Amino acid sequence: MFKKVIIFTLMASLVLPYPIQASEVSFDPDYVISDTDFFNGSALDEQGIQRFLESKNSYLAHWVDSRTRMKPARIIWLAAQDYNISAKVILATLQKEQSLITATERPSDDRFDWAMGYAICDSCSKSDPALQDFKGFFNQVKYGTAILDKYKREIESYGETRSGFAPGVVTTIDGERVTPQNIATAALYTYTPHLHGNKNFFVLWNEWFSFSYPDGTLLQANTGGGVYVIYGNQKRGFESLSALTTRGYKTEKIIQVEPEELSKYATGAQIKYPQYALFEGPDGTRYLFVNETKRKFESAEVFASLGFNPEEVDVLSQEELNTIADGKLITLNDAYPTGALLQNSSTGSVFYVEGSVRQPIIDKSILTARFGNNPRFIAADSDTIKQYVIGAPLKLHDGELVTIDDGSDQAVYVISGGMKRAIVSGSTFEQLGYSWDDILSVPDSVLRLHPTGEVLDLDADTPVELATK
To answer: How far apart are alpha carbons 280 and 316 in whole angstroms?
Structure first.
């Protein structure tokens, strides 16, 4: 697999038994945007800005500034380069101030002339001769971007901006106490000293540019700390290594990120217990922890007959047990409550059996990816295997990067929520922190098990349609 591959595809299937619904990200007036995202002149190149404008069907995508003979994408890109302010910040500001990005018809001259809202205020007159040097789309983008960089330099040199905003300094805005937590937030309040304006910026940023890792991605701050799995725009920490590994996650797939990246996600419930942990309640009743539920053993005889070790049972209080949802009762009919690989002694076909359901494993690549190079099989005849209800074929696990082994498609895929998602460039692949060495070659039949999800493109921040395979 060459690093010049044009299209990739990501997929991940989480073993959590229930979906965690994505919650709307709430506005924190103390922390509007990270410094990393704000002060990043290379966040989008000129082509990426143009593609973004086209994706919004924006009038700016085809308009040319008569004064400079340049298109907005170039004007925005030049300002981003000159002052190391993210082009995404400029785009969000143009929308916040004059709704220019989503304008599909030609906006008024006034909206172009004061595109960034720079140099004007509630009590200012736009006809003031002192403001005319800042009039026009090019000047607005140039000076509006330059002042954001200047606010940063003021904080670094004097400890605060000209308006007195600074990280850690309490200020009253619209009757509410606000304490900016970083330079970017202080700069935004200096530019727009109102809560509603910065909330509008925040909403636009999160709608357009706030990237979320695919469901099932493992993240850890590069400064240390716990490991989290991302799901439904939440991060859920693992209380122990066994809680992680028994769910099929691989420690080598943990991606190191800046602490600010983790702070973008709401914190979900801690993943506390290992899969298939054994519990005992105060009354002596025993349970098997399966897919976030506690499955009660019908009797001590069932526990013993299924081969469980009493020394591996953890005693929990009734309060702890009550926090775990009840699952299906385990009886003598549950031959493999913790799952097993059954191989047909006549045909060689392999099934993953858990409870009363058997899932076909259609290719060795799935078997190896999920169970290693030396999986343990239980030989069974056809009649025994047929006793189990046939289920859907077993899919690849979350976080597997895959490509088709015959070279007919240069795409690379990851599994996310059981779907395949495409990464459209090598740049995006590497920005996500994935390793080229982790790409697994699979036949097209394995790829087809996974529905097509939304493409990932960190360069354009625009969803791309991908042909269903």
So the answer is: 6
Q: Which amino acid is at 278?
A: L
Q: 357: buried, middle or exposed (CB in 10 Å: 19+, 13-18, 0-12)?
A: middle
pLDDT in tens, 45-93: 898 899 899 989 999 999 999 999 999 999 999 999 999 999 999 999 9
Integer Cα distance of 159 and 330 in angstroms: 64
β-strand partners of 219: 228, 255
Tokens 């004061």 correspond to 114
Residue 93 has a pLDDT of 97
DSSP letter, residue 438: G
Token pair, residue 232, equals: 């439904």
For 189-236, what is each residue's pLDDT tens digit? 999 999 999 999 999 998 888 778 888 899 999 999 999 999 877 899
Mind spelling out the 3-state secondary structure of 353-415?
A: EECCEEEECCCHHHHHHHHCCCCCEEEECHHHHCCCEECCCCCCCCCCEEEECCCCCCCEEEE
d(CA 283, CA 22): 38
DSSP state of 432: T
CA 84 to chain centre: 25
Pinpoint the alpha helices (H) of 222-258.
241-245
Cβ(395)–Cβ(449) below 8 Å: yes
| Count of residues making up the chain | 469
How do residues 268-285 score in pLDDT, each as one tens digit?
Answer: 889 999 999 999 999 999
Q: Which runs of consecutive H residues, i.e. helices, occur in 331-465?
A: 364-371, 382-385, 426-431, 444-447
